[in-house]
Amino acid sequence: MKLSAFIAAFGFWMTLLTSALAQDARVVRFTTTHYPPYLDEQSSGGGFFTQIIREAYKTQGYQMEVKFFPWKRAVILAKDAQGFDGIFTFGTINEERERDYVISDPLPSLEWGFFRRVDRPIAYQKMDDLFPYRIGIVRGYAYGGGFDEQKEKFQSIVVANNDIALIRMLADDRADVILSDRYFAEYQLNRDLVDLRDQITFMEPALVTQGQWLAVSKKTDDPEAKVAAFNAGLKILRDSGRMQDILKGNYLY
Questions:
Q1: Which residue from 179, 156, 182 is spatially nearest to 166, judged by alpha carbons?
Q2: Cα–Cα distance between 232 and 236 in angstroms, integer?
Q3: Which residues lie closer than 8 Å to 200 by C-beta, 6 or more apart?
Q4: E strand or H helix at 100, and its extent?
Q5: For a Cys staple, 191 with which of 36, 98, 214, 251, CB 3.0–4.6 Å?
Q6: Residue 253 — very low, low, confident or very high, per pLDDT cuts 50/70/90?
């Protein structure tokens, strides 16, 4: 092979290699766990948090990849950057997590609160207002927001084995109010319990509001840049109304 031809061929392959490396540099990889409707391994979009994160990165020219694991395994792989850049989502931020990760701007918060029947108006501003009523809860759940310490003050406690049974309990008038994950309940009412959708409503304000964050390990390359790209994309989704469209597309609101 002539020297000029070799140089041309070498330059061609170096261009391809550089392009491939640059393209790979625009890929961010995350771990997460199955927790529908937020994070759903069985749905095509992966749950609405996954969809929000993917689209936020896409606005900045990044491809987002995610793999589902049991939660403890997801944390270990993300923290040590073992083939992944980070994890979503954290519901609490503490000193240890701030030491190990660069934390994003907040995603939509999880909300736990009370639901009632539409045809049974109940005045509610604070939990004390509901003590005269029958409260429905799921067996074994810890709810927070002061509920667990005060639940015996309700007129009576009615227990269901799962969240879907809890919603049906309210519809069947076996409880006056129920305490549930707002997004999960609305997801079920708009998808699998459509016959009950117009019968049940959420009671503002929420009892517990829990922030959610994406986190990129400080052991991966350019963690600050990867979080900054996500934050910029997240703002675009919020400002454009796309965030609300994603929620509606996942049977919420």
A1: 179
A2: 7
A3: 115, 116, 117, 118, 167, 170, 171, 185, 189
A4: helix 95-100
A5: 251
A6: low
Joined tokens for residue 177:
């109010």
Of residues 79, 73, 120, 121, the one with CA closest to residue 98 = 79
Tokens encoding 203: 């009671």
Q: Could you tell me what percent of the chain has a pLDDT over 70?
A: 89
Place of tokens 């937020």: 38
Reduce the DSSP state of residue 105 to 3 states and report it: coil
Long-range (24+ apart) CB contacts under 8 A made by 4-11 are none
d(CA 227, CA 103): 7
More confidently predicted of 236 and 11? 236
Which pLDDT tens digit goes with each residue over 15-72? 434 444 444 559 999 999 998 889 999 988 999 999 999 999 999 999 999 999 999 9
Measure the CA–CA gap between 184 and 202, rounded to whole angstroms.
Answer: 12
Q: Whole-model pTM?
A: 0.76
Q: How many CB atoms lie within 10 A of CB 122?
A: 14
Q: Which domains does the chain show, CATH number per domain?
A: 26-109+211-249 (3.40.190.10), 111-209 (3.40.190.10)
